[in-house]
């Protein structure tokens, strides 16, 4: 089957965008893995599928698949690219979009100069909703990994995140303990793992070992989760510029129960057809 796609990225977190409205697609985990494979396919961190909405007040439904083929609940960088994609493909002329995801509704606002702002909804902090194994909700949690005990934050942005504070993000053990935390038994649906260096009350640096992918150049939900954890610990103000290896995102959050807003770029690289 020939399938049209657009290759896009948000700060180097790269995506294959598929229009499931103008073309009938039958995807499987194996097909997703082949599309995402950087040798036998197109290559990407996530495959994003645009579908007609099921909710009455949604403009579109958008589904997210990690490179390992697993479907997940949310993708921040992907949401910004999604907004640009549906406008470029003339699927809408709107600049304010309501988008249905497995994690709930997102509000997207297309701004000038390739920027998109996303209302990511309120973070979820109750352990059983993350899900994370803990007796009760706490500001941070001890986590045993390879006979070491790490202090983590646990936050869901629709998808689960563990966040560790580090002194130097360049030397953080992203690839040595990232995989062990990603598959830690206290995270029954696995977890994205963020390593956060706080430089001031409004500036921080972050690297993320993403569930189902590995380390990416940027992670939008990871930036939101990391800012929420730092804010809960009283270490940052209500707006923080999070610097990831691929570039910076502006995250705004004013406290529990409030939505997190993420603003950043979305770029289209090329269009093509793949035979799957
Ligand atoms: N790996 C994530 C999905 C993609 C998130 C990331 N690419 C973003 O921009 O938020 C997960 O398994 O929950």
Automatic annotation (TrEMBL):
The record marks 161, 210 as: Could be important to modulate the pK values of the two catalytic cysteine residues. PROSITE patterns: DAP_EPIMERASE. Its EC number is 5.1.1.7. Coiled coil: none annotated. It is found in: Cytoplasm. GO terms for molecular function: diaminopimelate epimerase activity. The active site is at 75, 75 (proton donor), 219 (proton acceptor). Pathway: Amino-acid biosynthesis; L-lysine biosynthesis via DAP pathway; DL-2,6-diaminopimelate from LL-2,6-diaminopimelate: step 1/1. Keywords: Amino-acid biosynthesis, Cytoplasm, Isomerase, Lysine biosynthesis. Its main location: cytoplasm. It comes from the Bacteria. The keyword Cytoplasm applies. The record marks 270 as: Important for dimerization. It catalyses: (2S,6S)-2,6-diaminopimelate = meso-2,6-diaminopimelate. Substrate binds at residues 13, 46, 66, 76-77, 159, 192, 210-211, 220-221. Catalyzes the stereoinversion of LL-2,6-diaminopimelate (L,L-DAP) to meso-diaminopimelate (meso-DAP), a precursor of L-lysine and an essential component of the bacterial peptidoglycan. Homodimer. Belongs to the diaminopimelate epimerase family. This is Diaminopimelate epimerase. It comes from Microbulbifer echini.
């Amino acid at each position: 089957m020939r399938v049209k796609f657009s290759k896009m990225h948000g700060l180097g977190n790269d995506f294959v965008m598929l229009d499931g409205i103008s073309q009938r697609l039958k995807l499987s985990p194996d097909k997703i893995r082949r599309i995402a494979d950087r040798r036998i396919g197109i290559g990407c961190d996530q495959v994003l599928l645009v579908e007609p909405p099921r909710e009455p007040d949604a403009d579109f439904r958008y589904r997210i698949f990690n490179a390992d083929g697993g479907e997940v609940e949310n993708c921040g960088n992907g949401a910004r690219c999604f907004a640009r994609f549906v406008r470029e493909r003339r699927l809408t002329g709107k600049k304010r979009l309501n988008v249905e995801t497995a994690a709930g509704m997102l509000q997207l606002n297309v701004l000038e100069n390739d920027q998109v702002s996303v209302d990511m909804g309120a973070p979820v902090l109750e352990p059983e909703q993350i899900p994370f194994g803990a007796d009760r909700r706490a500001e941070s949690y001890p986590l045993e990994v390879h006979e070491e005990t790490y202090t983590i934050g646990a936050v869901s942005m629709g998808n689960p995140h563990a966040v560790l504070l580090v002194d130097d993000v360049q030397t953080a053990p992203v690839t040595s303990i990232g995989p062990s935390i990603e598959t830690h038994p206290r995270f029954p649906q696995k977890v994205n793992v963020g390593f956060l260096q706080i430089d001031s009350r409004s500036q921080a640096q972050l690297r993320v070992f993403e569930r189902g992918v590995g380390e990416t150049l940027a992670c939008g939900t990871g930036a939101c989760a990391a800012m929420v954890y730092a804010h809960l610990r009283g270490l940052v103000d209500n707006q923080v510029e999070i610097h990831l290896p691929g570039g910076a995102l502006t995250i705004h959050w004013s406290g529990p129960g409030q939505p997190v807003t993420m603003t950043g770029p979305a770029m289209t690289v090329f269009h093509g057809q793949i035979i799957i």
